[in-house]
Amino acid sequence: MGAFLEALYFIVPVSIAYAAPLIFVAIGGVFSEKSGVINIGLEGLMVMGAFVGIVFNLTFADQLGGSTIWFSLLAAMVVSGIFSLLHAVASISFRADQTISGVAINMLGVAIALFAVKLIYDKGQTDYVSEQFIRFDIPVLSDIPFIGPMFFSDVYSTSILAIAVAILAWFVIYKTPFGLRLRAVGEHPMAADTMGVKVNRMRYIAVVLSGMLAGIGGAAYAQSISYEFSHSTINGQGFMALAAMIFGKWHPLGAMGAALFFGLAQSLKIVGGSIDFIDQVPTVYLDILPYVLTILALAGFIGKASAPKAIGQPYIKGKR
Amino acid sequence: MSKRKYGLGLSVMLAAGTLLAACGSDEETQETNGNSGEGSEPTEETADFSVAMVTDVGGVDDKSFNQSAWEGIQKFGEDNGLAQGDGGYDYLQSASDADYVTNLNNLVRRDFDVVFGIGFLMEAAVNDIAQQQPDAQLAIIDAVVDQPNVASVLFKEQEGAFLAGVAAALMSESKQIGFVGGMEIPVIERFEVGFLAGVEAVDPSIEVDVQYTGAFDKAELGKTTANRMYSEGVDIIFHAAGGTGNGVFAEAKERKTKDPDANVWVIGVDSDQYEEGAVGDTNVTLTSMLKRVDEAVYRISEAAMNGEFPGGQSTVYGLAEEGVGLADSRGAIPDDIMAQIEEFKQQIVDGEITVPETRE
């Protein structure tokens, strides 16, 4: 039992830390797709966020000191938000195929970021940042037996922020007029339009929101895990977030749960050797768990995967 | 989902394309500048010889063996008064596994005298081209291609890793040591086996915690693995995991930042990873196990220029040939321990110790 508890005290914080960047990005995906715009570009937006976060951090660490990391998140949020406008303009105003536009964002994101790194630093990757997100124990709370070591020790501030954002997103989408309009636009844009909701404006807002959150996710990852930016810094996490969003059935809290679950699978793989039973499972199964679960979720084996009805369709006013 | 995968593939390709374009133009301008500056000086006799290499997906500035190979070729070019480009020295980057054959073929057709394929991933491609172009001289690093016109270069990683193991065992205070590997492939296994043998040679009671992450590019896995190991009392981790190893450094640095007295160390791999370990004024890099791909590339090129291209042979670079070794620890390892490491090194060079290559 002691060993199991020890393992648990390790697994839970590690899973949360792994999941935090994914949560931001997945929530971003929820906003965009709830409004009816597919956002495959999450990966590219995340790359952009990681890139901007690291460059900002390297440039301003001397002036801003300990608060650099937060300003970097902010900068990444702004730049990725602007970057996502490309997707918004193409897929909303020009009614381009949303999947293709998203793919273009992915291509552009990596290309621009690497090109810029090459231009700025004259090498294939940036230096390591000196200011990073560091784990800390929350005072008082971390002394609570059992719960303390599990949830309140070794916490990244980005994890707390991620969970807060997920809850806030749930509140915004399901409890505010704005959220109602957002969902209406994604389910039945014509009905929403009849009721006076500006469909395209809602969609613009949603896509930019998703860009901002993906940017935060990328910068959070880069500043808490890789500490640098290179071609492999963001390497599929955006797609993992997309998977988490689908596995979470386009629900903010579901997406958060899915991201946490993916984190759990990852950490189980690493700690698995020291826990009875799990050490019998070959690591390859833990490796593929997130992907298999996503496929199962998509195939409808785990409840109904309920995508917004109007997803992928540009809204043309007056057309039936 | 297929569209997404396709998109990922496309974006990776485009990204690498941009990268390639960027460095190509950049270095060419530098080269021209350099030449015009040196024009008046009596340069060394310009050899009528050219050499080129194809990187694997890591890229030419991967801080690892691609970069090392390119440095070797650049040095060879400079020493022999060659210019970058056709008839001198050059490289092509591969954005994906599909590019190897094309790139190799491209360079062979551009009449480079020797074309290097860097990395075991290129084994099949080099084999194909060697058969299609029997007159070309090819070389491959980290793999054996059994063709009369291919020179194969292998390293005794186990010997370098052995020294890393000795260093770790002598330096460890907690007597717990970790090894983080990338994919479980023969090359990485040589690192593991050599490292374990080195630790055991010093103190058989030390247990080495071995974990493979299954990937060379997942920093988060490296970080989590290192977190677990350090949490369980390990104080020195040797990584042979490429980009995943960055996560190991990140974890050690985070612990060092949080608590400057934390006793955490990382042993780097392939190239000197001192820079990766910097935390303010201190450093978590104990030392690095070097794999001198540059040295090997240089020697093969030199041999080929002198008409002694070792086609059809495998050359193995070990401690004796200075093909592997430890980097400068910059004071992290005290002199008396360095002396002991040196003794082990001498014993391996003299053949008194034979480092195993595979798990029994």
Automatic annotation (TrEMBL), chain A:
<dbReference type="Pfam" id="PF02653">
    <property type="entry name" value="BPD_transp_2"/>
</dbReference>
<feature type="transmembrane region" description="Helical">
    <location>
        <begin position="7"/>
        <end position="31"/>
    </location>
</feature>
<keyword id="KW-0472">Membrane</keyword>
<feature type="transmembrane region" description="Helical">
    <location>
        <begin position="158"/>
        <end position="174"/>
    </location>
</feature>
<keyword id="KW-0812">Transmembrane</keyword>
<feature type="transmembrane region" description="Helical">
    <location>
        <begin position="284"/>
        <end position="303"/>
    </location>
</feature>
<feature type="transmembrane region" description="Helical">
    <location>
        <begin position="70"/>
        <end position="94"/>
    </location>
</feature>
<feature type="transmembrane region" description="Helical">
    <location>
        <begin position="37"/>
        <end position="58"/>
    </location>
</feature>
<feature type="transmembrane region" description="Helical">
    <location>
        <begin position="100"/>
        <end position="121"/>
    </location>
</feature>
<protein>
    <submittedName>
        <fullName>Sugar ABC transporter permease</fullName>
    </submittedName>
</protein>
<keyword id="KW-1133">Transmembrane helix</keyword>
<keyword id="KW-1003">Cell membrane</keyword>
<feature type="transmembrane region" description="Helical">
    <location>
        <begin position="204"/>
        <end position="223"/>
    </location>
</feature>
<dbReference type="GO" id="GO:0005886">
    <property type="term" value="C:plasma membrane"/>
</dbReference>
<dbReference type="InterPro" id="IPR001851">
    <property type="entry name" value="ABC_transp_permease"/>
</dbReference>
<dbReference type="GO" id="GO:0022857">
    <property type="term" value="F:transmembrane transporter activity"/>
</dbReference>
UniProtKB/TrEMBL annotation, chain B:
<feature type="signal peptide">
    <location>
        <begin position="1"/>
        <end position="21"/>
    </location>
</feature>
<dbReference type="InterPro" id="IPR003760">
    <property type="entry name" value="PnrA-like"/>
</dbReference>
<dbReference type="Pfam" id="PF02608">
    <property type="entry name" value="Bmp"/>
</dbReference>
<keyword id="KW-0732">Signal</keyword>
<keyword id="KW-0472">Membrane</keyword>
<protein>
    <submittedName>
        <fullName>BMP family ABC transporter substrate-binding protein</fullName>
    </submittedName>
</protein>
<keyword id="KW-1003">Cell membrane</keyword>
<comment type="similarity">
    <text>Belongs to the BMP lipoprotein family.</text>
</comment>
<dbReference type="InterPro" id="IPR050957">
    <property type="entry name" value="BMP_lipoprotein"/>
</dbReference>
<feature type="region of interest" description="Disordered">
    <location>
        <begin position="25"/>
        <end position="45"/>
    </location>
</feature>
<dbReference type="GO" id="GO:0005886">
    <property type="term" value="C:plasma membrane"/>
</dbReference>
<dbReference type="InterPro" id="IPR028082">
    <property type="entry name" value="Peripla_BP_I"/>
</dbReference>
<feature type="domain" description="ABC transporter substrate-binding protein PnrA-like">
    <location>
        <begin position="50"/>
        <end position="358"/>
    </location>
</feature>
<keyword id="KW-0449">Lipoprotein</keyword>
